[in-house]
Amino acid sequence: MKPDTRKKAEHRWVVDSIEEFVASVEVDGDRMITVPQSLLPTEAKQGHVLRVVRETASDGKRSTVTIEVDEIATREALGASAAQTKKGTRQANDPGGDIAL
Amino acid sequence: MTFAAVFAAVLLASAPPLSASDSELVVRVLDVGQGDAILIENGGSRVLIDGGPERSRLGHLLDSLRLNDSTFDVVILTHPHADHLIGLRELFQTHRHINVRFFFENKDPYTTANLRHLRDSINSRVTHAGLVYRDTDDPCANGKPICTITMKGGAKLHIMRPFWSSPNPPNPNNRSVAVKIVGPDSASFTMWLAGDAEQEAISWFLGPAGYARNPGMHVNVLKADHHGSCNGVTNAYINTLNPDVIVTSVGAVNSYKHMHTQAKTLFRNHHVPWYRTDQNGTIVIRSPGTPGGGYSVAEHGAKNRSGPSDKRSTQPECNPVP
């Protein structure tokens, strides 16, 4: 894989879980990575969408990474998720009850 | 005796008895790395609880177990964390031709794209293939807190409504659904699995939920909650479950220090041995399902092993474990 040589790059992280000071993070809607919790904003919690911006100096020798809780994106993702499952509504073709396979 | 009772008695008398192979219950705690995936088969029925952390890893297992072009009668996602969820996406890959009849999960809103993609696949099967999609908060879709699934060989699964609290909802681990497996001969084999439930949910199982009375929590085998984390066990939990053996699904190299030293110490103090997928590989438990048939755990190495990531946890709820 070639290194990302862009001067500025933006990523969407989602905090999937945090335990033992380690966060499991979904990167750009796909792969999972683990990062030290200490790299995240102190208010970052499970389920938060994070906006991650990396800016690289022109000589390529220094990068600044900004990670911030994206409250709007988090609210939007939760709203879309709620709409997707329609929690509390019973499926029309499910008669309910115990199941004999 | 009523006509209906006589008719039922005649039917029972004329029905061929289940053969040993029909009634055999096989539970495989699959070696999927740092995550959970448990395959349960009985009499031709097939249930999968969670799918592990990687699509490719579950995919290889589907291939090696020859489960493509097959039916999974029931799939249960205990809670929507990636290490339980992502592998399940592989079930819905078109080229696998896998039919799923019932899917259970808590339907809680959550923000990851992997969960969104999985739910897209489920919803598509609801629309086009008649999949029944149930909420573990209402597992029987009739308001009852416990739903029972009877497999073709006579084994049963009790699916129990997970913990909830308000105004502060529990963390996703504590929304894990608990499942009790009961073998065709209930005196021979029972097993308790509760995803990544932590101490708060465990206290609720033991107390307000009343699961110790119904369906009962005394079992032969416990799948350790939360990959052997010390926040997934209490002394009261082990006293109530009173398992003969514990199986832990855990990755050899993980960032969370699983299995925690405190959990292993507690298991030792209760004289309960454990197996673990990172050291023992896929753990296969068989019960013939016949009266007095018991059960066996296929051994791939010694009990009570430690792994390279095992360490002591500094979490307050583990020092000490209540």
Commentary on this structure:
The complex is a heterodimer of chains A (101) and B (322). Chain A has 101 residues and is mostly beta strands. Chain A is 15% helix and 40% strand. Chain A contains one helix and six strands, in the order E-E-E-E-E-H-E. In chain A, strands 3-2-1-4-5 form a five-stranded antiparallel β-sheet. The longest helix of chain A has 15 residues. In chain A, 21% of the residues are buried. By secondary structure, chain B is an alpha/beta fold. Helices cover 25% and strands 21% of the residues of chain B. Chain B contains ten helices and 15 strands. An eight-stranded mixed β-sheet of chain B has the order 6-5-4-3-2-1-14-15, covered by helices on one side. A seven-stranded mixed β-sheet of chain B has the order 7-8-9-10-11-12-13. The radius of gyration of chain B is 19 Å and the shape is globular. The termini of chain B are far apart. The N terminus of chain B is likely disordered.
Which structural traits does this protein have?
heterodimer; A: 101 residues; mainly beta; 1 helix; 15% helix; B: 322 residues; alpha/beta; seven-stranded mixed β-sheet; 10 helices; 21% strand
Averaged pLDDT of chain A: 94
Gap from first CA to last CA of chain B: 53 Å
Shape of chain B: globular
**Percent range for β-strand residues of chain A:** 35-45%
Return residue spans of chain A where pLDDT drops below 50 for at least 5 consecutive residues. Answer: none
Secondary-structure-based class of chain B equals: alpha/beta
Nearest-angstrom radius of gyration of chain B? 19 Å
Q: What would you report as the Rg of chain A, rounded to the nearest angstrom?
A: 19 Å
Number of strand elements of chain B: 15
Would you tell me the overall average pLDDT of chain B?
93
Question: For the terminal residues of chain A, how far apart are their CA atoms?
Answer: 48 Å
Biggest interface pair, counts: A-B, 38 and 50 residues
General form of chain A: elongated
Which strands sit side by side, in order, in the main sheet of chain B? 6-5-4-3-2-1-14-15
Note the run of SSEs of chain B as H and E: HHEEEHEHEHEEEEEHHEHEHEHEE
Supply the helix-strand structural class of chain A: mainly beta
Structure summary, number of beta strands of chain A: 6
The portion of residues assigned to helices of chain B is: 10-25%
